[in-house]
């Protein structure tokens, strides 16, 4: 498996810079799964309903590791498998992913009103703080 290249920004625009890292759906869906579903193993990500291809998943995981959003460590149960965990940098994207969730739920007529969306409507700031606390415990 080839190593992902470190991403360099195409311009000084903050939006362009952010999109250089998280501008494709697969990267955002991996982050979503880690943040809200607690997924950490390669096989876990493959089971997501969006059905990412194995080569794309491997590429996105490598890119996230190379650029410091997640770590990759040998699994404690099976040394031939790996566990992926968010870093502080990855966790810092939580508010962005939440805002995309809110926007998506408002603009998709068939979107399900998930428990997360309900919590966000009730108290977004508290929900972000609680998720951040849980995610940071995993890296402490």
UniProtKB/TrEMBL annotation:
Signal peptide (from-to): none
This protein's UniProt keywords: DNA-binding, Transcription, Transcription regulation
Domain HTH hxlR-type: 13-112
Molecular function as annotated in GO: DNA binding
Residue ranges of the TM segments: none
Protein's name according to its UniProt entry: Transcriptional regulator
